[in-house]
Amino acid sequence: MDRSQFLVGLSVALFCLGLLGVIVRRNALVMLMCMELMVNAVVLSLVTYAARAGSTAGAAYVFLIFVVAAAEIAIAIPIVLLLVRQRRTLDVGAYTGLGG
Amino acid sequence: MTETVLLYLFSAAALAGAVVMLIARHPMRVALGLISTMLALACLYALLGVHVIAVFQVLIYVGAVMVFMVFVIMLLDTRDPSFVARYSRLLLPGALTAAVLAATLAALLARHHGGRLRPPGGADFHLQPFSVAFLRDYWLHFELTSVLLVVVVVAAIAVIRGRGGRDG
Amino acid sequence: MDLLTAIVLLPLAGFLINGLAGARLGRGFVSIVGCGLPILAFVAALRAFFALTGGDGAPLVATAYTWGSVGGQSFEIGFWFDRLGAVMALIVTGVGSLIHIYSTGYMKEDPGYARYFAYLNLFLFFMLLLVLGRSLLVCFVGWEGVGLASYLLIGFWFEDPAKARAGKKAFITNRVGDAGFLLGMFLLYHALGTLNFDGVQAAFAAGAPAALSADLVGILLFIGATGKSAQIPLHVWLPDAMAGPTPVSALIHAATMVTAGVYLVARLNGIYAHAPLASELIAVIGVATALFAATIAVTQTDIKKVLAWSTISQLGYMFLALGVGAYGAAVFHLYTHAFFKACLFLGAGSVIHALSGEQDIRRMGGLARRIPLTFATFAIATAAIAGIPPLAGFFSKDEILWFAFASDRGGGPLLWVVGAFTALLTAFYMFRLLWLTFLSPSRMDENTAHHVHESPPAMTGVLLVLAALSAVGGFVALPHFLHPVLPMAGIGEGLERYETPLLVTSVLIALAGLAGAASLYAQGPARAERLAARVPRLHRLLSGTYFVDELYDAAVTRPIAWLSEVVLLRLGDRWLIDGSLHGLAALARGAAGRLSRVQGGGVQRYMLLAGLGILVCVAWVWRHV
Question: In angstroms, rounded to a whole number, what is the distance separating the alpha carbons of residues A77 and C95?
C-alpha cells in the first residue's frame, strides 16, 4: 500500500466517523463539529490527490474550501443559538419542524 | 523512515481524535477531540510538504472556527438533556450504514492503485509559487470568497436579529 | 333562396321560433307560426310541383351546402325533386299542415303547447329532408331525425313513465333497423363510390355492378325499412307509440314517417330490379306482416291500438307491392293510406276528445248521433280502408292485390290468397271498430255520456277535408304519373283475363267483412265475446299480440340485462375496474402512509437516508466504473 492510498483511506475513515457522528449524536453542536470533521476528511483526500498530481489549482481549491467552511460555521452557529433561544434545548430530537 | 513513522503516528492521532468525538459525552471534549484531529491533519499536510495548507489549517480551523465553537459551548447550558444522553435511536442503523459505507469505499480504494506521491516539498507547493499562482490566476475566486464572507456576516446578523425582532 | 331549400327550411324555422321563444310568445303566435310555416312549405311544394310538371320532366335539383370533399368525392346537402319526391313532399306538407291545424284544437289545453308545435315542425323538417334528399346520406340524416322527433313526440307526456318508456322502445327498436341501413349504405358507397340516388339508380340501370351483391344491399336496406315501417320482426314499437298525442299518431305513425321504409325501397327500385331474392323476401315479409297485424287488430279493444295494428297491416300491403315490383302501386297505397288513416286517427282523436280521454271501445257505442261529423268522416275513411268502391282505398288495394297475383316478378296465387284474406280481416275489424264506437247501443257511463260534445271546427274541418280526399283520392292515376321514376312490373303471360273476376272478388270480400262485422257487433261486443270464449287459446294469442314482446323480452332483453348486470356490472365494472382502481388507491394510500413516516422531521433520519444514498451511489460506482 503506497502512501497516497493510505491517506485516502484515512480520509474515508474520518469521513465515515463524521457521518456516524452526525447521525447518532443528539447534541446539535456536536453534530456541527462532526460535519466539520467530514469536511476535514474531504479536504485531506483533496490535498492528497493534489499532491499526487502536483497541482497548484488543488491547493488553491483547498484554500477556498477553508473559507466556505468558515462561512458555513459562521452561519450555523447563530442558527443553533436561535433554536436554543426558542426551545431551550440542544437536542435535535426535539426539532421536528421539517416534517413533511 | 522517520517520515513514514510520523505519518502513521499522526494518522493514528487523527483517528483517535475522531473516535473521541464520537464517544465523549461533553461537547467540550468533543471539541478538544476535533481540535486534536485538525492539528494531526495539519501535521500530515506539513509532512506532505504542503506547508501553506498546513498553516491555513491551523490558522483558520483551529484558530478561528474552533475558538468560536468552544466559546459557544461555554455559553450554553450544560444541563441540557443532550449532554446526558449521547445517542439518538438511530445508533444501530447509523453505525451499520457508516460501516458498510466505509467497507465499500475501502474495497473501492483497494481496487485502484494510485500513483506515487511526489517527493515532499515539491516546487509547486512552496509559498512563493503558490502565492503567485493564487494572486495571478485565482484572484477572482479570492475576491469572491471575500464577498462570500461579507454575505455571511450580514446573514448571521440577520438571523439573530431578524427572527428575534419579528417574533419577540 | 332556392325553392327546394325553402320547402325544407320553413318547418325548421318554425321549430327554432317555437322551440326557442314559443313559451313566451303566447298560444296565438305559436299557432300562427306552427301552422303557417308548414302551410307555406306546402305552397312552396305545390309551386315546385307545377314547375316540375310544367317543365320537360327533368327533376329539380338544388345544392344547399357542401359538407366536405374527400378526395374527388364531395358530400353535399343536395335536394332532388322528381315525381316521387313531389308526391311524397306534397303528402308530407299537405297532410302535415292539416294535422297541424287539427292540433290547434286537440292540444288547446295542453301546457306544452309550444313544445308540441316545435317538435311537430322539427318532424316535418326531417321528414322533408328524408324525402327530398338527393343522396342516401341526407336521407339518412332525415331518417334519424324523424326517429328523434318520433321519440320526442311519443314521450311528449314524459311525466308518465309508461309513455316515456314507449318512446325509448321506439327509438331503440329503430336502432336495429338503422344498423342495416348504415351497412347497406357503406356497401353501396364502397362499390359505387356515390350515395346519390340518381347515381345509384344509373349504376344499376346499366346492369348489376359486379363488385356488389344487389341482394345483400337490398336486404340490408330493407332491414332499415322494417325498423322504420314497423314490419316483422321490428314491428313491436308501433303499437306502443300510440302513447303519444293522437295527432302525432296520425301524422308520424300512420301517414308519413312509417312510410319512409316504403319510400326508401321505392326510391332504390333499381337495386331491387337486380335483387330477386331481396324482392321475394320483401313480398313475403310484407304479406306476412299484413296478415299477422290484421289478425291482432281483430281482438284489440283500444281504439288507437286497432288503428296502429291496422297501420302495420297496411304497410305490409305496401311492402307486398314493392316485393312484386309494383312500386307505383305501393306509393299509390301510401298516398291513399295517408288520407284515410290520418282521417281515422284524427277521428279517433275526436272521439277521445269527446269522451274526455276514454280509449276503450268496449265502453263506447252510440256516438253516431252525438258527434255526427266525426262519425260521417270516420265512416267514409273506414269504407275507404276496407276497400269499398269507389273510395280511395279500393283502387290502391285492388291494384296491389292484382299485382300480387299477376306480377311477372314474383306474383302468385298464394300471395293473392293471403292478401285477400287480410283484406277480409281489414274490412271486418274496421267495421267492428265503426260499429262498436258509433253504431251499437251506448255502453258509456252516465258522467262520460253527459259530457260528449262535438269537436271544435279546427278539428272537424280537417276531418272533412281528409274524408273528402279519402273519398276521391283514388281517382288520381298515381302509378301512371309515377311511371317515369317508378317502373311497374309487367303482367304475367295470359293472366289479363283474371283481372275482372279478381276485382269483383275483392269488392265482395270487402262487403263480406262489412256484413260480418255488422251482424256480429250490431248489438255491442257481447256476441263476439261469447264467440271468443269458445276459442280461448286463439283469443289469448291474438289479444296478446302473439306474445312477440314477451318473446323478445325472454330472448333478447333478459339475457342482455343478465349479461349487463352480472358480467359487465358486477364482474367487469365493480370487481375488475372498481376493484383495481380501489386497489391502486389503497396501495398508493398505504405506501404514502409508510413513506410519510420517513419525513418525520428528524434531521438525523434525513442524514441517515443521505448516508444510504451515498452508499447506493458508491455501490453503483463500484459495479460500473
Answer: 99
